């Protein structure tokens, strides 16, 4: 998925293809269907299948970072989307989570790594990475594969960000005052 409603992919001959869609919605719908097709054509996937719908901006989230997320979860039934079993999309409260804390299902921990603010991702999560053989009483049957569409609304990074050259950001960009006063108000770099 690329900006301006483009999607790019490789075929089985490793040729690169690009498709331009008439709208962002059409590009996202196509990406969702590609993800479902990938799942259905792969025998016994035992990890999370991720498909970016929108890339977002900024630095990707890593373990220890906190996210605020809007999401919808469906049961995967009959090779496609089944009924919605959980969503916070039209609610006032976003889900807050800290990646790596173990407070959400393993499939979310894995599937949300690298997401950026404003990013949307489609996740297909096998039972072992979701609720497993126990399921969730009244909501998720045992051994259910789940589909989530997640949108990261806020990201709080734990690590200090670094500049494009990999060096840490200069003191003028940090909230702490520089220990060395500069006569002209500009830092040496």
Strand content: 25-35%
CATH architecture tag of the domain at 45-156: Roll
By CATH, the topology of the domain at 45-156 is Chitinase A, domain 3
Distance between the termini: 36 Å
Total DSSP helices: 2
Low-confidence stretches: 160-189
Structural class: alpha+beta
Q: Identify the CATH class of the domain at 45-156.
A: Alpha Beta
- The overall strand count is 8
Largest sheet: 6 strands, antiparallel
Rg from alpha-carbon coordinates: 20 Å
Shape: globular
Explain how this protein is built.
With 189 residues, the chain is of the alpha+beta class. The chain has a domain at 45-156: Chitinase A, domain 3 (Roll). It is built from 2 helices and 8 strands; from the N terminus they run ββαββββαββ. The strands form 2 sheets. Strands 3, 4, 5, 6, 7 and 8 form a 6-stranded antiparallel β-sheet that branches. The chain has a two-stranded antiparallel sheet with strand order 1-2. The longest helix has 18 residues, at 24-41.
Key descriptive features of the protein:
phosphoprotein; disordered C terminus; 2 helices; Chitinase A, domain 3; 189 residues; two-stranded antiparallel ribbon; alpha+beta; actin binding; PPIase_dom_sf; 6-stranded antiparallel beta sheet; single chain; 8 strands; 13% helix
Concise structural overview:
By secondary structure, the chain is of the alpha+beta class. The protein contains two helices and eight strands, in the order ββαββββαββ. The strands form two sheets. Strands 3, 4, 5, 6, 7 and 8 form a six-stranded antiparallel sheet that branches. A two-stranded antiparallel ribbon has the order 1-2.
